[in-house]
Batch of 2 targets.
Target 1
Amino acid sequence: MNCRFCNTSLKNVFVDLGFAPPSNSFLSKEEMKNGETHYPLKVYVCDACKLVQLDEFKKATDIFSEEYVYFSSMSTSWLAHSKQYTEKMINEFGINENSLVIEIASNDGYLLQYFKEKNVPVLGIEPTASTAKVSREKGIETITDFFGERLATKLASENKKADLILGNNVLAHVPDLNDFVKGIKILLKANGIVTMEFPHLLQLVKHNQFDTIYHEHFSYLSFTTIIDVFKKQGIQLFHVEELPTHGGSLRIFGKHLNDTNKEIRESVIKMLKKEAEAGMRTLAYYAGFQERVEKVKKDVLTFLLKAKEENKVVAAYGAAAKGNTLLNYCGFKADLIDFVVDAAPIKQNKFLPGSHIPIVAESKIKEEKPDYIIIFPWNIKDEIVAQLDYTQEWDAKFVIFIPETHIL
C-alpha cells in the first residue's frame, strides 16, 4: 500500500483494530442468516507527509450506495452548527443572491436549506441516492454523483463555477485526495472560497478517539498535511478555525494561489506551530496509540461484565459508526448490550453489523427502563442526555467509553 497523497510506501502502523464489517452496513433479520464480510481496520502513518490513512478495502462506491443510512438532519445540534456557518459566510464573505454555493457531500440538504432561505443559489453534490432524494424534496438542486476532476470539469463547462465550495466531513471519505482537490481547483471561481471541515487528528490522538476509525474514513487529517494537499493543486489555505464538533474539528478556508485579495491570516501560522509543538511532524508522535486503545478495550469489558453480574439492564443510544467500531474491536455481542436505540426510522428493526445488537425505537427505553444507557455518539452526548431526561425517573445512568469509561 502506498500513501494516497504522496505515493510513499507505507510501513508504519498507527493502530490495528483487527477486522470488522463496514460500520454502516446494518442488517435485516433475513440478512442475519448470511455471513458478513469483515475487512482490516489497520491504519498507517506515512513516513514522508504524515498522512494517517486506511486502505480502501471496500470501495467508496459500495459504501456510499443508494441504501446509505446517515442523515445529517437527525442531529439538532448539527443543524444549529450549519445555520451558524451559513450566517457567517453571508456576513463575513458577502455570499448573496448573486453567488453560487456548491456543497460536496450535501447529504439531505441539512445545510444548503439555510442558504436557500436567504435566496442564495445552491447546488448539492451527493453520491447517495437515499439522502439526495430528501434534499430534492426540500427544493434543493442535487446531483447524485461522486465529486472529482471529471464532474468538476463537466460543471465548469456548463458555467456552474462556485463563489463558495464547501464540504463538511467529506475529506476523510475521499479515497483519491489529489483528484478531489483538483476538482475543487477547477470548479472554484477566480475569487472564490472553499471551506472544508474535518475531525482534527490532533484531537483523535489526544482524546483516544479510535472509534472514529472505520472503513468510510480513508484518511485522518492534520492541518500540516492538508495544507500541502491543497497547495499541490494550486489552492492556498488562508485561514483555519478550531471547532468543537465531532470531538474537535478544523474548518479550513482556501483560495486560488494567485488570488491576492485575501491575506494569509495569523491562524494559519498558529495552527502549524501548535501541531509542530505537539510533535505531529515526527513519527514518535504516533507511537504508543495502540496501547492506549487496548486499555479502553479492557476497561469497557470490565464495566459490561460487572453490569451483567449485577443483573443490570444495559442499553445504548445511537446506532453510530463509531459505536460499531468500538463493539467490533472489543468483540461484544447482544449478550452484553440488550438493544440500541436510534432516532432514524431507516435503521430501526435492523441489527448492528458484527455485534448483531437489535436497533429499536426510543419507546423501548420507556418500556425496559435500562439501568445504564451507553452513548455511542459521544460527540453529541449533551443533546442526547437532554433528550432522554425522563430516564431520571428510574435513576438511569449514562455512560461513555471514550476517551475512557465514564458514568455521566
Target 2
Amino acid sequence: MTGVSTGLILAAALAATDAAAGTFTFDKSHTEVRASWDHLGLSRQSARFNDVSGRLDFDPENPEAARAEVTIKVASVSTGVAALDNHLTRTKDYFDASAHPMITFRSEGVRLTGDKSAEMSGALTINGITKPVTLGVVWNYLGPHPLGTVNPTLKDVTVAGFSARTQILRSEWGIARTIPLVSDEIRISIEAELQLEPLQTGSAN
C-alpha cells in the first residue's frame, strides 16, 4: 500500500466523528456470516452464508439505541463441498429450507461494554424456532467511505463496519443430527460493512 493511499484512508477515518446517524443497509458483497463446528474431534469445519441482507439503525452519539434486523437465505450456505451443501438445505436433517427458507435475527437491546464494543441481545429464528441470543459486537468504523476520494462512485457515501461473535447450541433449534460426533456447539462470526441510506424527501403534490 502506498503512502498516498494510506494517508487517504487515515484522513477518512479521522472524519468518522462527523458521520451522521441514520439507517444503514448491509453491503452484501462485503458481509460474511460464518458458522463453525467441531468435526469428530479431528478439526473445526465451517460454512459461509453468502446472501445476507438487513438494516441497522445506528447513532454514534447513542449506540445503546441501535436496532438491527438481519435476514439470511438458507440456500446460500456454502461449505466448499456440494454434497454437504445439498444435505444441509435439501433435507430436514439440518435446515428445513423448503418450509423455512430464511434465518432471521431481530435485536431487542444493546449494552455497552467499552468505547466501541457492546452486547446486542435479540431473537434468532431458525427452522421456525425462535430463541434468544447475545452477540458480542465491535464497532470498527463509521464515516466517509475510505475509497471515496479515489473512486467517484463512492464519493459522499457514508459507511460503517462491525464485527460480531456468538455461540449457540444447534439442538435448541431442532438440529440434532450427528450430535455428539459433530458438536452441538456452533460458533458464529459476522463481518459486516453497511452503507448509510440517503435521506428520503417528500414529493411535491
